[in-house]
Amino acid sequence: MDADLTALAEAHGVATWYEDWHRERKDVSPESVVGVLGLLGVDATSPASIAAGLAEIRTAREQHRLPGTVVVRQGNTQPLTGTIQLEDGTRVQADGELPRDLPLGWHRLVTGDQDVTLVVVPTELPEPPETWGWMLQLYALHSAASWGMGDLGDLRSFVRGSQGAGMVLLNPLHAITPTVPVPASPYSPSSRRFANPLYLRVADTDAYRRADASLREQVDALRPAPAADGLIDYTAVWQAKSAALELLWPLAGEVDLTADPGLTDFATFCALAEVHGPNWQQWPAEFQRPDSPAVLAARTGDRVAFHVWLQQLLEDQLGAANQAARDAGMPVGIVHDLAVGIDPSGADGWLLQDVLAAGVHTGAPPDAFNQLGQDWGLAAWRPDQLIETGYAAYRDMLQRIFRRAGGLRVDHVAGLWRLWWVPPGMGAAEGTYVHYDPEAMLGILALEAHRAGAVVVGEDLGTVLPVVTETLERMNMLGSAVLWFTRDYDDPAEGYLSAADYPRNALATISTHDLPTAAGFLVGEQVRVRAELGQLAGPVEDEQEFADKDRAQLLVRLTEEGLITPDTPAQDIIVAMHEFLARTPCRLITASLYDVLGELRQPNLPGTTDEYPNWRIPLTASLEEILADPRVARIAEVLSAKKGTR
Length: 646
Fold this sequence. Notes:
The chain is of the alpha/beta class. It contains 22 helices and 21 strands. β6 and β7 form a beta hairpin. Its EC number is 2.4.1.25. Pfam families: Glyco_hydro_77. It catalyses: Transfers a segment of a (1->4)-alpha-D-glucan to a new position in an acceptor, which may be glucose or a (1->4)-alpha-D-glucan.
């Protein structure tokens, strides 16, 4: 690659090479680098434009211009001069270097003709408590009171019956675009800043409680019948709940559209989507900018107020679930899941378009399982615009989530260091990495978690840079340890690690939503299903042989730990898996209902869309049955004995 293009790319955090899954250097094509630079607003299409870009960088350095955001760890300093306005309005002078006793928070630094954001972040979070909990796909719950899928009323009931658990880890509850059809995946949300109204319990609203018997009867009659195929029909659930909430809307009372401008912006998107469709990029031109006169005129409508009300109901019901966790004495409480990105056609794609890279799709480079690479179709932050805007959008997202969370699991936490960008018109393998400032991304995450008293768990599975796991540990953020993956990779046989050799700084689980359940693993369900759907890369016999070997290795490990014998039945082997995790030094352990109840089907099968019912599989047992199930009580007893809160 041309040396000047390489220099320009490096200056903007765009990788010109990376290590592939073989740990070998893989050079990125010049076309990919030029395409990604273009997404950052940098013209690299000719030698002259590259030279001009490099000259601009040199000029900024010679002028000693500060970036739009300065991040400093509490107790540290930087060589800066200027006036600091603290969050509380106090002014502090910096003469040559920042004072070391600056408080945590969001401040302003004025130096010369520059006024920049100064963020003081924690060096680390408090050590998380040692406890255990449940890993819950909330939509999969169903009870006598819920409408076709699990809801926040079910969550509250589950927390109350959680049998000594210290936490409940949920799937993402991020907002959808309120149009039909409703997509099933919780990892491609319309907005990560707001919540999904499908999870509302209609009967738990004040409006329903105030309704007369006739109106309640009308509302109750809208409850959807179970789907004929036994799967969750999100569209039917939303149509039923939205119709019910429309009936109750006249009883909502006055809604203040000025109290939370960010919420009103989101509600404006929802109202416009009802008229113009879910993809804002296809709206009439006058509505494609959230600050346009046409949009500003629409912000006061009744439909905007309706969608503000829905989010207020969600805050109330999430608050009730959190209160139930506090009443149960949970030291962590309810842990939310942060998806790695958003649907670019949705609410955040519209509202935050100035800090997103227009047209980019995030994904992953080729690996052993996805040799063509992955295109997740998700939007990505522009790192340069985050810096120049003081990370305002990132800060707002975290603050809104932590208002309703005792903890946060960050999906693909390595994305806080770098993300794989795929330029428009190119295949997933033709992208490259774009780097972010981890001091800012991790520091701001730590700041907002610290202020909320919340724990942070990073999903650091797969091939990640060592710095990711090392930094999480330094900052008292937890990594992830999944039984299926926690092996001795220096051993040619790649046998399972002993319980004692697990990392301390981790959340340990048997599986994840993307992997086989415990019961499925024991019978090779993942091989059967993938073979049936044509998802295997090689002969089914080879896959079955690998699965049989894998299962045998696990049984050897459990036998060596003294947890099973050759004649131990399958259900007791599953109990032994949980007891194995309870013996590890990991701070947090979570048990999935899919494993405890012996479910064969995993929630999501990567590499499929309509071939497999991803995210639409309800648990076979009702919530009432789960709370009375002796298998659930047994796992709770096993985990409580070893991982009671300390």
